[in-house]
Amino acid sequence: MNYRHIEIEPVTPAIGATVRGVDIASTLSEDVLDELRHAYHEHLVLFFRDQKLTPERLVAFARCFGEIGYYPFVEGMAGHPEVVEVVKKEDETINFGGLWHTDTSYLERPPMGSVLHALEVPRVGGDTLFANMYLAYESLTPGFRQLLEGLRGVNSAEKPDAAVTRTHRMADKPRDAQDIVTTASHPIVRTHPVTGRKALYCSNAHTTHIEGMSAAESAPILQYLYRVQQREEFGCRFHWEPGSVAFWDNRCAQHNALNDYHGHRRVMHRVTLEGEVPA
Ligand code: SIN
Fold first, then answer.
1. Domains of the chain, earliest start first
2. Is residue 255 annotated as a catalytic residue, yes or no?
3. Based on C-alpha coordinates, what's the Rg of the chain?
4. Would you state the pLDDT for residue 89?
């Protein structure tokens, strides 16, 4: 596509593009939105710098791309229930989302995308890694792809490594998640509803086993897929500054918030967008 209203600069050949020439706090024209949607589907995660966003404007921007969703375990901000504060305080050693994952894949309809706005960040550290799950899938041999055909992964919110990353935020602002089902089975290879491309959709954070197999039987296949998903050439690394925004597609990308900044405070605002049942 020839971008006429925004500037797009890829971060790596695999994933991520910096978008320039747009103030996402303003009301965006359909022409700009069309180009942003196109860039989102092409690059899987869009990065913006120096954005001055109130929680209302963050929600308004997210709403241009779909319906707003809710995070099951943590209450949103007072007056802005759609916005979850992703915080790591100076005295905390655990960070939210600090492992490879796609957001809340343990829900029956996991979110299609998430928007994260940086307010306070350490001068160094606290970067987020992103990885392209189309490329991870496409790197597999035809024989292995055939093996995965029809397999479903069981995803749970209770895997300890992931569950621990939300403990501080749940202690601060618990949300009553009693009625929410937090285990879901999804195809290990899902087809993106817009691009039609196939992507790996299992994660070290949430997938416990392959449906119909024991955890021990599933492990060699899943562990192999996790190693493929995390290959460096499929990824990019984003360094946050106050005012940075990332908008990623959970259907074909994974991310990992690095936890290398103990003693420093990091404050982000996050909004998720409703998704569909993966197919
Ligand atoms: C998340 O997983 O939503 C948090 C990512 C981050 O803080 O960089």
1. 7-273 (3.60.130.10)
2. yes
3. 18
4. 95
Q: What type of residue is 148?
A: L
Query: Residue 174 has what DSSP assignment?
Result: B
Distance 147 CA to ligand 1 centre (A): 32
Token readout for 157 is 């919110």
Q: Whose Cα sits closest to atom 5 in ligand 1?
A: 257
- Which position among 117, 255, 266, 269 bears the catalytic label? 255
**pLDDT tens-digit readout, 212-247:** 999 999 999 999 999 999 999 999 999 999 999 999
103 tagged catalytic: yes
d(CA 101, ligand 1 centre) in Å: 10
- Report phi then psi at 174, rounded to 5: -65, 145
161 in catalytic set? no
Ligand 1, atom 6, residue with closest C-alpha:
257
Answer whether 257 contacts ligand 1 (Cβ < 6 A): yes
Question: What is the longest distance spanned by two Cα atoms in the chain?
Answer: 52
Cβ atoms of 63 and 32 closer than 8 Å = no
With tokens 């074909």, the residue in question is 252
CA atoms within 13 A on the CB side of 35: 17
CB 163 within 8 A of CB 157: yes
From the list 95, 105, 89, the residue with the least C-alpha distance to 129 is 95
